[in-house]
Specification:
11 helices; 35% helix; 401 residues; alpha+beta; globular; eight-stranded mixed beta sheet
Length: 401
């Protein structure tokens, strides 16, 4: 039995899905958010770049969680390999491009809680705290069957349901995937020395070892190592892994004490061959999966959410079909270059770290040397990393939809 008809159904309640749903509802678009309650809090962290912060501020979410975030005032890259060609240490300072911070690092649970609080304020946003059991795409709309057998019809489905996306499968969209021989160990930790708002990324032969500031004397860690080493590290006692992290970080943060919860994630890249077709637009990890390198994954997903929301709102205000092919075609065009360039950049960085080929190592070192020595180049790279020039959506510029 059909229970509700809406313009847009958002499937998935992570940060990207919540952002899309809140953005749509804030403009008055009738929206259904289909996402079960999280079984456990997400203790991972996200480095939100300035565009993402601007979007969250415009939606009213940032003020609800800003106190739980730490500014990233500088990014330091240290070549910690033992190879013949080693790159110089490079520090990127946000003040060089007129910013107080490149962005802010926050635990995902605080970000999600802020977006959930925003979502609860909009009468045009209907929340269904259960899973989507089936999605049927038809010529004039989409019908979603929930686990309770209730049905929701929509003109457009926004698939924000992760790497095993039901929305993507229902739309008949294939993916291309590539695995890396690495896993990322993620955890949060306390330390005795201040981080001063500096994120430090040690480049090692097995991948980046990155310490990112959290409020107070706390930081988050993303340690990329071989899959076997990640399994070994995750099994260590709290005391032993604390000592190992302090050793690998060369004690730059003093004595380290890890939090109890740890995560281990096999690394790879996967991307949908089309981000939109058959009345379905994909955002976040339903559209592209990144390793946690360079703070690109969730920021890219939030740009997806802001872009599809902008296009849908514009079409809705004109009285057009929000799930029509011309809307989806514009979304594909606007997101293509951003996704391709970010995927290529992250893949290149990771592969150059893994390569034992001397010319590749030399090129990586020379590239960092140029960034260290040529100020205009360094500033251009910083601006592009923080605020992409490729079709930045209005929300990311802090503008109302």
């Amino acid at each position: 039995m059909r229970e509700l008809a809406v313009e847009v159904a958002v499937v998935g309640g992570g940060p990207a899905g919540l952002t899309a749903a809140v953005a749509l509802a804030s403009a008055g678009v009738e929206t259904a958010l289909i996402a079960p309650e999280a079984k456990k809090p997400d203790n991972r962290t996200t480095a939100l770049l300035t565009g993402s912060v601007a979007a969250l501020r415009e939606l009213g979410a940032w003020d609800r969680c800003a106190g739980e975030a730490a500014p990233l005032r500088a990014i330091r890259i240290v070549d910690d390999t033992k190879r013949l060609f080693r790159a110089p240490e490079v520090t990127f300072d946000a003040s060089e491009i007129g910013l107080e911070a490149f962005g802010y690092n926050i635990e995902n649970r605080h970000l999600v809680a802020a977006l959930e609080a925003c979502a609860a304020e909009f009468p045009d946003l209907k929340r269904f705290s259960e899973t989507a059991a089936g999605i049927a795409v038809e010529d004039d709309g989409v019908e979603i069957t929930l686990a309770s057998e209730r049905r929701i019809s929509a003109r457009l489905v926004v698939g924000a349901d992760g790497r095993r996306s039901l929305a993507r499968q229902a739309a008949g969209i294939a993916t291309t995937a590539s695995e890396y021989p690495q896993s990322a160990l993620t955890l949060n930790l306390a330390h005795t020395r201040p981080h001063d708002g500096v994120s430090t990324e040690f480049h090692t032969e097995s991948g980046p070892f990155t310490l990112v500031p959290l409020p107070g004397l706390r930081s988050s860690l993303v340690c990329v190592v071989t899959r076997r080493e990640a399994k070994r590290l995750s099994a260590l006692s709290d005391d032993l892994i604390s000592a190992e992290i302090e050793r690998r970080s060369h004690s730059i943060l003093g004595k380290v004490t890890v939090d109890p919860r740890r995560g281990v994630f096999p690394l790879g890249v996967e991307w949908a061959r089309s981000v939109a077709t058959n009345r379905t637009a994909l955002i976040g990890e339903a559209a592209h999966v990144f390793p946690p390198i360079g703070a690109q994954g969730l920021n890219l997903g939030l740009r997806d959410a802001a872009t599809i929301a902008e296009l849908v709102i514009d079409a809705w205000r004109k009285g057009e079909d929000v799930g029509a092919e011309d809307v989806l075609a514009r979304y594909r065009r606007l997101r293509r270059a951003d996704v391709i360039t970010r995927t290529a950049a992250v893949d290149l960085l990771n592969r150059t770290l893994l390569s034992d080929f001397l010319p590749v190592q030399g090129l990586r070192g020379f590239g960092l040397y140029l960034l260290d020595r040529i100020s205009p180049l360094r500033r251009a790279v910083m601006r592009e990393g923080v605020s992409p020039s490729l079709a930045e959506p209005r929300l990311m510029r802090g503008e109302a939809l």
